[in-house]
Design brief:
This protein is mainly beta. The chain has one domain. About 5% of the residues lie in helices and about 35% in strands. It contains 1 helix and 10 strands. Strands 1, 2, 3, 4, 5, 6, 7, 8, 9 and 10 form a 10-stranded antiparallel sheet that branches. Strand 5 and strand 6 form a beta hairpin. The protein is globular. It starts with a strand and ends in a 32-residue tail after the last strand.
């Protein structure tokens, strides 16, 4: 199999490769695994123009990648400090990364996990129908280590961006609605 695009892991941080997991194997003792935040995973894939089953990077920070070829990335999930070289990487926006540029996902500020999708998806051979890393069971189709090359699959659809803010309302106001038992 030949790949036309790739990313090199400069620093893995707290990062795993995740897709939708391995449903249907529990009777053999294999956990479902997969993305912890399925909504953020689905949104990243949709915005990247990927299939909903495409694998991506799930991180709690410390991730540094170098684009070996031009790629398009989308960041969703937890609010974090992220950059392409020194320019901020916005969440929910398809962002072109030129060959040689660094993508950094630093500390998470609010939430737990961020998702970095690449248009075309991260491609590696699946294990039991999934590319997901599951540390508890030891099922690791592709171990992420510093220096590893991540191959990017073929892009089939145009990436998109979301033109609305995503995340919690931080205005400090809580809206209350009287419930049916308020008069009791």
């Amino acid at each position: 199999m030949s790949f036309s695009r790739s990313l090199r892991v400069e620093r893995v941080g707290f990062t795993t490769l995740q897709d939708l997991g391995r449903p249907g194997w529990a009777h053999l003792g294999v956990p479902h695994s997969g993305a912890a935040d399925r909504a953020s995973h689905a949104l990243a894939n949709r915005l990247a123009g990927n299939s909903h089953t495409s694998a991506m990077l799930e991180t709690s920070g410390g991730l540094v990648l170098r684009a070996e070829h031009d790629v398009v990335v989308v960041l969703t999930g937890a609010d974090c400090d992220a950059f392409v070289d020194d320019a901020p990487l916005s969440r929910c926006r398809a962002t072109r990364v030129a060959a040689g540029q660094l993508v950094r996902v630093d500390r998470v500020r609010v939430g737990v996990r961020s998702y970095l999708a690449v248009a075309g998806g991260i491609d590696c051979p699946p294990l039991l129908g999934s590319r997901s890393h599951d540390a508890l069971s030891g099922i690791v189709p592709q171990l992420l280590v510093d220096g590893h090359v991540l191959h990017v699959g073929e892009q089939h659809h145009k990436p998109h961006s979301l033109d609305m803010p995503i995340g919690p309302d931080r205005s400090g106001h809580v809206k209350l609605i009287r419930g049916p038992h308020a008069e009791l």
